Amino acid sequence: MSIRCTTKARRGMVAFTVAAGLALGVVGCGGGGDDDKGPAATASASKGDGSAPSAQEERTDDPLAELRGSDGLILQVMSAARDAGGFVTVNAMLKNDGAKSVTVPAALSGNETEIVRNGRSLGGATLVDSKSKKRYYVLRDTEGRPLTTTGFSAIKAGESLSVFMQFPAPPADTSEVTFQLPTFASGTIQISG
To answer: What is the pTM of this model?
Structure first.
């Protein structure tokens, strides 16, 4: 699938996504209190009370999924929102739960030449729709840059980094997908919107 945007439209989309990611970073930085979880991946579906909450209501301190990686890295998926443009934006917190600074694994960028040549990113992330038997990869702009957080290399002990990834949206009747990121355990997340 090839997506072509004008430079102005692409800049606007990136600016909006970055702003949304920064807003999530301010809202979603609270402590999780999940000290009793073991090293195995833990993921939980979002809780529902029968009504469909708005995207803002879903942004709470409780992640949709918490995935454990190597060297004390944890990825907390805070939201996965479908938008009218046919995209799903996943917002998350990448945390260093270890006692020392950690170099973020290059494997998170994936192994596609086009993405790797654009530097460190979360370009290796995928969404798997088992209902439709499809895998969705991080979107790229017309110059091959992944539509995800880029330019990070290390995270100090106890620090968090607000990150985002954009994917093509699965069919409208698909609300549950498996989120995968190299070196991290997989987890099931709910798509809102």
So the answer is: 0.68
